Amino acid sequence: EDQVTQSPEALRLQEGESSSLNCSYTVSGLRGLFWYRQDPGKGPEFLFTLYSAGEEKEKERLKATLTKKESFLHITAPKPEDSATYLCAVLLPGGNTGKLIFGQGTTLQVKP
Amino acid sequence: DVKVTQSSRYLVKRTGEKVFLECVQDMDHENMFWYRQDPGLGLRLIYFSYDVKMKEKGDIPEGYSVSREKKERFSLILESASTNQTSMYLCASSPPWGVQTQYFGPGTRLTVL
After folding, report:
1. B37-49 CB burial, b ≥16 within 10 A, e <16
2. Among A30, B17, B48, B59, which is most buried by a count of CB atoms within 10 Å?
3. What pLDDT is recorded for position B8?
4. Which residues in A lie closer than 8 A to residue B87 (C-beta atoms)?
5. Which residues of chain A fall below pLDDT 70?
């Protein structure tokens, strides 16, 4: 069964304390893995797309990496404004409908 | 920049009312999606559409219907709203080729009393 699991559910960091969020997936024939950021009461905001094992993408303090079974979102020296829920999603194989499976998300709180 | 807009940010309706949620995208995307998001349950796909007048059920279509008369507009209809449809509703769009990244609207927080 196609599945996406994110861990931890919640993460509290001090400002400047680097860490990583995990997204593991079981999908045959990965066509794309997406990371989104979601602030409370708002829609998810697209961050990264990863396609193949070994790929890395960076944006400011965030770096996303991909292996054959999981993806990591590394947060380097986070700031309070990085506090949000981070969602991982995988593109379902087959067709062009663009359907995604989402993980439950990791809620990150960065304290000053 | 891709822009997806939703007709209302907050909506309060009574049980039994017919509710329309509208979504418009300006990127000429073929694919459009409606999700609901609830604490502990994550994002769940209600319906999606891959072309004008084409629609397919998602994971939780019961109690909902959709309409796509124009490429840029995708409407979600609650035929007879119930309290268990109180939720955050999110619309998204994506192209059918290449990256297929879904871009989301700001969401509609619907409360059914």
Report:
1. beeeebbebbbbb
2. B48
3. 93
4. none
5. 95-96
Q: Do A34 and B48 touch (CB under 8 A)?
A: no
Would you say B25 and B72 are in contact if contact means Cβ atoms under 8 Å apart? Answer: yes
Closest chain B C-alpha to A88 CA, distance in angstroms? 11
Q: Which pLDDT score is estimated for A99? A: 86
Q: Which residue of A has its CA nearest to B10?
A: A41
User: Hey, what are A10's tokens?
Assistant: 């919640």
Residues of A at the B interface (Cβ-Cβ below 8 Å)? Answer: 31-32, 34, 36, 41-46, 49, 87, 89, 91, 96-100, 102-105
- Contact between B113 and B12 under an 8 Å Cβ cutoff? The reply is yes
The Cα-based distances of B93 to A83, A88, A108, B40, B73 in angstroms read 26, 17, 26, 24, 10
Distance from CA of A32 to the nearest CA of B (A): 8
The 10s digit of each residue's pLDDT in B59-108 is: 999 999 999 999 999 999 999 999 999 999 999 999 877 778 899 999 99
User: In a mutagenesis test of the B interface, which of A47, A96, A104 is the best target, namely the one with the most B β-carbons within 10 Å?
Assistant: A96
DSSP state of B18: -
Q: Is B38 on the interface with A (CB under 8 A)?
A: no
Residue-level pLDDT at B77: 98
Backbone angles phi, psi at B84, to 5 degrees: -75, 0
Alpha carbon distance, N-terminus to C-terminus of chain B: 37
Q: What pLDDT was estimated at residue A95?
A: 66
